[in-house]
Automatic annotation (TrEMBL):
<keyword id="KW-0804">Transcription</keyword>
<keyword id="KW-0238">DNA-binding</keyword>
<dbReference type="GO" id="GO:0000987">
    <property type="term" value="F:cis-regulatory region sequence-specific DNA binding"/>
</dbReference>
<dbReference type="GO" id="GO:0045893">
    <property type="term" value="P:positive regulation of DNA-templated transcription"/>
</dbReference>
<dbReference type="GO" id="GO:0032993">
    <property type="term" value="C:protein-DNA complex"/>
</dbReference>
<dbReference type="InterPro" id="IPR039420">
    <property type="entry name" value="WalR-like"/>
</dbReference>
<dbReference type="InterPro" id="IPR001789">
    <property type="entry name" value="Sig_transdc_resp-reg_receiver"/>
</dbReference>
<dbReference type="GO" id="GO:0042802">
    <property type="term" value="F:identical protein binding"/>
</dbReference>
<dbReference type="InterPro" id="IPR011006">
    <property type="entry name" value="CheY-like_superfamily"/>
</dbReference>
<dbReference type="GO" id="GO:0005829">
    <property type="term" value="C:cytosol"/>
</dbReference>
<feature type="domain" description="Response regulatory">
    <location>
        <begin position="5"/>
        <end position="118"/>
    </location>
</feature>
<dbReference type="InterPro" id="IPR001867">
    <property type="entry name" value="OmpR/PhoB-type_DNA-bd"/>
</dbReference>
<keyword id="KW-0597">Phosphoprotein</keyword>
<feature type="DNA-binding region" description="OmpR/PhoB-type">
    <location>
        <begin position="132"/>
        <end position="231"/>
    </location>
</feature>
<keyword id="KW-0963">Cytoplasm</keyword>
<keyword id="KW-0805">Transcription regulation</keyword>
<dbReference type="Pfam" id="PF00072">
    <property type="entry name" value="Response_reg"/>
</dbReference>
Length: 233
């Protein structure tokens, strides 16, 4: 597997040095930024494979950086932050972050997250982007080749993770997928943070997919087990 290019957005010098030293030791290419504006400029100019993003930047909140990058790019963003409240994680994930690590973190977990993200990028390229492959279920239509999903005539505006979840569920329609199975496929691991993130992403996906989220038509929850896409008709 070719090593990804990483944009490290971190204003705390000791943490930034730890991350960049780790990346260099494991032969990753990397760029650094210490402000949100610089991060956005570096992302647009150099198009890195992955962004590691701190939320507490001196010029703007990291959530705003995510939102601005998401207006033109779906590149994976892994948040690394000292903020551990669920509300902070939800805000970052809702804005379009793909993963969330809480400081302090272990180097081993950071490397595992990077490897998992690289595997997901390969899956997107080799599995989901299949030619002449369209899934239809009721009013839902997923065009894997185009990377788009529609509900009736309206295109669904999904984050990268929401789209990956929808693809995974649709490719296994009628089957109950466990939390562990889903997180392994989406994040490449089953850390506690992944299970929490999964619940957030499933909730936001439902809001976009279901006309009545309180009475879901497409995605059924199996409490304590996982989720299933229901075959309509």
């Amino acid at each position: 597997m070719n090593k990804a290019s990483i944009l490290v957005v971190e204003d705390d010098a000791p943490v930034r040095n730890l991350i960049t030293t780790t990346l260099k030791t494991h032969e990753y290419r990397y760029l650094t930024a210490t402000t949100g504006e610089t991060a956005i400029m570096e992302a647009s100019c150099h198009n890195p494979d992955i962004i590691l993003l701190d939320l507490g930047l001196p010029d703007m909140d990291g959530v705003e950086v995510i939102q601005r990058i998401r207006t033109w790019s779906n590149l994976p963003i892994i948040v690394i932050s000292a903020r551990s409240e669920d509300s902070d994680k939800i805000a970052a994930l809702d804005a379009g972050a793909d993963d969330y690590l809480t400081k302090p973190f272990s180097v081993e977990e950071l490397l595992a997250r990077l490897r998992a993200t690289q595997r997901r990028l390969s899956v997107v390229q080799n599995e989901y982007l299949t030619v002449d492959s369209v899934f239809t279920n009721g009013e839902l239509r997923v065009d894997y080749a185009a990377g788009c999903a529609y509900l009736g005539e309206e295109e669904l505006h999904l984050t990268p993770i929401e789209y990956k979840l929808l693809c995974l569920l649709s490719k296994n329609v009628g089957k109950v997928l466990t939390h562990t199975f889903i997180t392994q496929k989406i994040w490449g691991s089953s850390w506690d943070n992944d299970i929490a993130s999964l619940r957030v992403f499933m909730a936001t996906l439902r809001k976009k997919l279901e006309n009545r989220p309180d009475s879901p038509q497409y995605i059924q929850t199996h409490i304590g087990v996982g989720y299933r896409m229901v075959k309509i008709g």
